[in-house]
Amino acid sequence: xxxxxxxxxxxxxxxxxxxxxxxxxxxxxxxxxxxxxxxxxxxxxxxxxxxxxxxxxxxxxxxxxxxxxxxxxxxxxxxxxxxxxxxxxxxxxxxxxxxxxxxxxxxxxxxxxxxxxxxxxxxxxxxxxxxxxxxxxxxxxxxxxxxxxxxxxxxxxxxxxxxxxxxxxxxxxxxxxxxxxxxxxxxxxxxxxxxxxxxxxxxxxxxxxxxxxxxxxxxxxxxxxxxxxxxxxxxxxxxxxxxxxxxxxxxxxxxxxxxxxxxxxxxxxxxxxxxxxxxxxxxxxxxxxxxxxxxxxxxxxxxxxxxxxxxxxxxxxxxxxxxxxxxxxxxxxxxx
Length: 336
Known about the structure:
eight-stranded mixed beta sheet; four-stranded antiparallel beta sheet; alpha+beta
């Protein structure tokens, strides 16, 4: 065996010795500091991504709602081939006898009240004893918007469905009927158009989350009889407000915007202005909404509500003004 000089042995021992306790503690501190910083950056970034995603979903939902509402409002008063509401047989008001049976109708002749292609309710539920009964189905203080018209395309005779409410119309007159037997005596140009009746409102709950409000609508559907059904359009809508642009001097332009009222002459309505207030589905730590949302006849401040978490929700307010195309057509005697 080779002999290792004593001095060289001491040098080798020092070369392979471990770290001191101080060096280990310093290394642990630096490592912990770096890991903590990395985790903090990740958590902040992930939180920002979540907030951005929630806001993007909310904005997309608001756009979707307006894309549903705008064409529906614009079509109010469209009766297929005829522009003369007075010529449509079987139309009726709530005060008239019921000739067309409709299950779960909101009031007598609600769906066939064609003299009012557009109407509403200001901060109240007029159907709380019928199609929208139940204290937990409607957000008090929100508005309701009712729209009536027919489908924009005709249904071929061979495609008529039992239990569906249609209007047969030519250039001179129209007539409501149910089912597969169309009324006789119409011009060859006549068509059959499915009747559409919608009532938009805000519910305090969603089909997907009992704690999340939603925009819903009552809608005329088919069945053994025509029936009024209830469907959810989107979650996260917490308020709907509507005002009506009225033409009080018959010059074809809006003079003022007013709230719905039982005494309002809806034949003067030329346009509709809609506001929809949306909120995120989760509150956000560290976020406080101190804004006051002022629109229509509403002033809403989240921090003053009974719910202490209301001001921790992000919100947007969107609005749209829609002209009633068929009101212009009616004023011009059937021409744009």
